[in-house]
Amino acid sequence: MNKNTIELLAVDGGGTKTHAVLVNAEGTILGEGRAGASNYQVVGEDGAKEALIEAVLAAFTEVGGLVNVEKAVFALAGIDTSKDEKIVEGVVQRVVTDLSIKIGHLLIENDCLSALLGATQNKAGILLIAGTGSIVYAHDGNKRIVRSGGWGHRVGDEGSGYWIGKHAIQSVLKMQDGRGERTLLTRLVLDKLGFNRIEDLYNWTYSDSYSVDNVGALAAVVDEAYKLGDAVSKRILDHATDELILLIKTVMEKADIQQEDFDLILQGGVFHHNTYIKNKVLESIQQYTSKVNLILATEEPIRNIIKRGLKSR
Question: Of the four, 16, 25, 59, 115, which is 20 to 30 A from 184 by CA?
Answer without folding.
Answer: 16
